[in-house]
Amino acid sequence: MAKIFYKVVLTVAFISLLHSAISAAQHRSYIRLNELEFTHLPLDVFIQTLLSLFTIMYAVLHLAGDFKEIKASAELENKSWETFRNIPSFYVFSHRGGKCSPSKASLEESE
């Protein structure tokens, strides 16, 4: 239920940010048409932009889930030394040990 709420908040905030961008572009074109000097955006557009931005950040933080610690050792503290060496990409199954084994050699000769 909470995720749906934050998704709706995020959508509304993005629409509000898009509206403030369109308002800023319209203000800029109005200034150009009237040959006025651009000093700053209107206060209502500026406030809407900031509120939309902060609302987007708030909603994204709640939708993103749990964050991991920046410290690299925080995740590795619970693992033992044996699990560090257990890397599947280093597994070798077709090695020459089978050729040297007396039981394997006698089975291959009988075939």
TrEMBL record:
<comment type="function">
    <text>Part of the endoplasmic reticulum membrane protein complex (EMC) that enables the energy-independent insertion into endoplasmic reticulum membranes of newly synthesized membrane proteins. May be involved in Mg(2+) transport.</text>
</comment>
<keyword id="KW-0472">Membrane</keyword>
<keyword id="KW-0967">Endosome</keyword>
<keyword id="KW-1133">Transmembrane helix</keyword>
<dbReference type="InterPro" id="IPR018937">
    <property type="entry name" value="MMgT"/>
</dbReference>
<keyword id="KW-0813">Transport</keyword>
<protein>
    <recommendedName>
        <fullName>Membrane magnesium transporter</fullName>
    </recommendedName>
</protein>
<dbReference type="GO" id="GO:0072546">
    <property type="term" value="C:EMC complex"/>
</dbReference>
<feature type="signal peptide">
    <location>
        <begin position="1"/>
        <end position="25"/>
    </location>
</feature>
<comment type="subunit">
    <text>Component of the ER membrane protein complex (EMC).</text>
</comment>
<dbReference type="Pfam" id="PF10270">
    <property type="entry name" value="MMgT"/>
</dbReference>
<keyword id="KW-0460">Magnesium</keyword>
<dbReference type="GO" id="GO:0022890">
    <property type="term" value="F:inorganic cation transmembrane transporter activity"/>
</dbReference>
<dbReference type="GO" id="GO:0031901">
    <property type="term" value="C:early endosome membrane"/>
</dbReference>
<keyword id="KW-0333">Golgi apparatus</keyword>
<dbReference type="GO" id="GO:0000139">
    <property type="term" value="C:Golgi membrane"/>
</dbReference>
<keyword id="KW-0732">Signal</keyword>
<keyword id="KW-0812">Transmembrane</keyword>
<feature type="transmembrane region" description="Helical">
    <location>
        <begin position="41"/>
        <end position="61"/>
    </location>
</feature>
<comment type="similarity">
    <text>Belongs to the membrane magnesium transporter (TC 1.A.67) family.</text>
</comment>
<keyword id="KW-0256">Endoplasmic reticulum</keyword>
<dbReference type="GO" id="GO:0005886">
    <property type="term" value="C:plasma membrane"/>
</dbReference>
